[in-house]
Amino acid sequence: MAHATMTAPVPSTTARQRTSMTQRRRRSSVVRHAGLILFGLFMLYPLVWMAVSAFKPSHLVLTDPSIVPTELTLENFAKGWTVGRYSFLVFFGNSLIVAVSCIVGNLISCSLTAYALARLEFRARNLYFAIVLVSVMLPMHVTVIPQYIIFANLGLVNTFVPLILPKFLATDAFFIFLMVQFIRGIPRELDQAAWIDGSGPFRTFWYIVLPLMRPALITTAIFTFIWTWNDFFGQLIYLTDNAVYTVPVALNALVDSTSNDGVATLMAMSLLSLLPILCFFAFAQKYLIRGISTTGLK
C-alpha cells in the first residue's frame, strides 16, 4: 500500500515579491526616519548649546564645549537681568507693547485692504493689487532711509510710533496677499445674500467675510508676533534710549566680545527671550490647526 507524502506548500512568486517589497519598504522607512532624526538633532544642537551655556559658569562657556555641563549656576541670569538702569522686565514689557500693537494693526489694516482688493469693484483695482505684489519683492532696506527721515522730521525717533504706525497703514503686503487669496475662496453668494438683505460693504465684511477669515487672521497674528518680537534691525534704528529698548536691542547691549561673561549672560537672556514666543506659538497653534481643519462654511 503506497504511503502519501506530505509536501510543504511552496510560496508563489507573487507572495515572495510582496514579502520582498514589504521588507524594502521597512528598510527604506527606517533609513528615512533615521535621517530625519539626525537632521533634527543637527538643527536642535544650537538651541541645546544655548540652553546649556545659560547655566554654565561664564569661564566654561567657550572653554568647555560639552553638552553635559560639569557645573551649573544661575549667576548668568542675575548678571544679565539688568541693562543699565533697567531690568529685563521693562524690555519684555516694551516688546509686548510693540508686538501686540503690530498684531492689532496688521489684523485691521490688512483684512480691510484684502477685502477691498478681493471683493469691491473700483477703478485701478488690478493696478493697486499689482503694486502690493511688487512691494512683497521689495527689500525692506530700500525704504529704511526715507522712513527714518520722515519720522525724524516728525520728532518720533526713540518712540514706538515708527514701529507700530506702519502696521496700521497695511504695509505688510505678504499678509494682504494671503488674505486676498483666502477671501477669493469664500463663495460670492454669501456676499450677494447679504447685499439683498440690505447690508453695505462694511457690514458684509464685518458679519460675513471676517468670521470666515479666522484661519488667515490667526496665521497673520502668529507670524506678526514672531517677526516683531525677533525684529532687531528696525528696532535698533529707532530706539536709542534704554527706557524704550525692546528685548532684541537689550540683548545686543549685553554683548561683550572681550570676555566670556558677555557670552554667558547673552545665552541666559536669549533663553528667557524665547519663552514668550514658545508660549504664544503653543497657545495659538491649536487655534490655527482647528481653524484650518474646520474651514467649512457654517
Tell me the layout of helices and strands.
Layout: H1 13-54, H2 75-80, E1 82-83, E2 86-87, H3 88-119, H4 125-136, H5 144-153, H6 161-164, H7 173-184, H8 188-196, H9 201-212, H10 214-230, H11 233-238, H12 247-254, H13 260-293
Helix pairs in contact: 1-13, 3-7, 3-10, 4-7, 8-9, 10-13, 12-13
Counting DSSP E segments of at least 2 residues, the number of strands comes to: 2
CATH fold type of the largest domain: MetI-like fold
Distance between the termini: 81 Å
Global Rg: 28 Å
Let me know the average pLDDT. 83
- Helix/strand-derived category reads mainly alpha
Q: Percent of residues in helical segments?
A: 55-70%
- Counting copies of identical and different chains, the oligomeric state is single chain
Query: What's the structural domain tally?
Result: 2
Please list the strands of the largest sheet in the order they lie side by side. Answer: 1-2
Protein model, in words:
The chain is mainly α and 298 residues long. The chain has helices spanning 13-54, 75-80, 88-119, 125-136, 144-153, 161-164, 173-184, 188-196, 201-212, 214-230, 233-238, 247-254, 260-293, and strands at 82-83, 86-87. The chain contains 13 helices and 2 strands; from the N terminus they run ααββααααααααααα. Strands 1-2 form a two-stranded antiparallel sheet. A hairpin with a 2-residue loop joins strand 1 and strand 2 (86-87).
